[in-house]
């Protein structure tokens, strides 16, 4: 009976490929295809035939697919050694095409930042991904590219800065791969209030990612901070401490402590169980803008950090 069970497991295996921007699509695999995790395959997409690496999908993803039913992609064939040589040559051509396109745009005076160039495997189509602060009239650029890449279909795609980061990939300050490269498919709205409420310094280096926009992960634990805030008095509240009357200068939600300024001017940290709220105003001056939420020696353009307009276009 053991070989039969093993055969059933093999038949239940499902494979997927990850196309640009962390989108996993199931594969249509023939029964006689001997596909393995990690192999490279030629897949038919809406852009043409493209090369992707195969991933073995776990049961949880398969269950999600039953609900959302992403479009399956057809496998043309498993990449041969000769195909892989062709693919390596293609990647070199993509780099050259990238710089050639960038040079053309610079000569035309176009404000475009190119992210990547991608050929289809048959090299009949090339897609250039770029970011730009405003709409670009690239008709003259398209003429240049048509003359340079003869008998090749040219596709210029305007993407957002968050899309750009998800394509280029990298690691965040946490040491992990960018969320947009691992699991994020939809970017949620992020604003600086999330950082302020969590006691994070409002400086670009602390709260922005490689895309130059606010960190997506500011959303992840925000609800937990709101719950923790219910158990602690807010900044500016008067409290009674073991050292006398004080006014809260800063709140640490994770440690469940507050930093308070006492009457002699000293600032000390107290646990929640060590303090009691005081009704009425406490005559102690504190400079809220001088706490760890702000960095005085750095000019912060809040609007630029929160500018999410077109940061993710879905045009990939």
Provide a descriptive summary of the structure in words.
The chain has helices spanning 2-12, 59-68, 81-107, 139-148, 161-168, 179-182, 192-197, 204-207, 222-229, 302-306; strands at 14-19, 23-28, 40-45, 48-57, 73-78, 113-119, 125-131, 153-158, 238-241, 244-252, 257-262, 267-271, 276-277. With 316 residues, the chain is of the alpha+beta class. Among the domains are: 13-79, no CATH class; 84-158, GMP Synthetase, Chain A, domain 3 (2-Layer Sandwich), CATH 3.30.300; 236-290, Roll (SH3 type barrels). The strands form three sheets. The chain has a five-stranded mixed beta barrel. A five-stranded antiparallel β-sheet has the order 12-11-10-9-13, with no helix packed on it. A three-stranded mixed β-sheet has the order 6-7-8, sandwiched between helices.
| Strand order, largest beta sheet | 1-2-5-3-4
The string of secondary-structure elements, in order, is HEEEEHEHEEHEHHHHHEEEEEH
Tell me roughly what share of residues is in helical segments.
25-40%
Low-confidence stretches are 1-12
Q: Give the class from helix and strand content and strand pairing.
A: alpha+beta
Predict the CATH topology of the domain at 84-158.
GMP Synthetase, Chain A, domain 3
C-alpha Rg (nearest Å):
27 Å
- CATH architecture term of the domain at 84-158: 2-Layer Sandwich
Strand content: 25-35%
Give average pLDDT, whole number: 83
Biggest β-sheet strands, sense, barrel: 5 strands, mixed, barrel
- Report the top-level CATH class of the domain at 84-158: Alpha Beta
* End-to-end C-alpha gap: 48 Å
């Amino acid at each position: 009976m053991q070989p039969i069970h093993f055969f059933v497991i093999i038949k239940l295996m499902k494979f997927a490929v990850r196309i640009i921007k962390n989108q996993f699509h199931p594969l249509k695999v023939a029964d006689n295809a001997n596909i393995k995790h990690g192999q490279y395959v030629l897949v038919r997409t809406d852009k043409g035939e493209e090369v992707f690496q195969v991933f073995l999908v776990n049961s949880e993803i398969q269950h999600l697919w039953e609900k959302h039913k992403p479009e399956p992609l057809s496998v043309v064939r498993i990449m041969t050694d000769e195909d892989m040589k062709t693919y390596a040559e293609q990647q070199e051509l993509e780099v050259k095409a990238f710089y050639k396109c960038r040079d053309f745009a610079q000569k035309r005076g176009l404000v475009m930042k190119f992210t990547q160039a991608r050929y289809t495997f048959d090299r009949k189509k090339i897609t250039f991904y770029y970011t730009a602060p405003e709409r670009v009239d690239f008709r003259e650029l398209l003429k240049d590219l048509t003359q340079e890449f003869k008998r090749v279909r040219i596709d210029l795609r305007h993407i957002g800065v968050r899309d750009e980061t998800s394509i280029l990939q990298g690691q965040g300050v946490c040491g992990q791969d960018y969320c947009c490269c691992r699991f994020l498919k939809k970017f949620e709205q992020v604003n600086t209030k999330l950082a302020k409420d969590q006691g994070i310094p409002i400086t670009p280096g602390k709260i922005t990612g490689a895309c130059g926009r606010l960190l997506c992960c500011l959303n992840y634990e925000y609800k937990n901070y709101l719950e923790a805030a219910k158990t602690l008095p807010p900044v500016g509240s008067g409290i009674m401490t073991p050292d006398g009357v004080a006014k809260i200068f800063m709140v640490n939600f994770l440690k469940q402590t507050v930093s308070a300024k006492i009457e002699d001017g000293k600032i000390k940290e107290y646990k929640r169980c060590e303090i009691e709220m005081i009704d009425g105003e406490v005559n102690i001056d504190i400079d809220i803008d001088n706490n760890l939420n702000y960095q005085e020696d750095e000019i912060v353009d809040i609007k630029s950090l929160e500018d999410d307009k077109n940061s993710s276009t879905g045009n990939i």
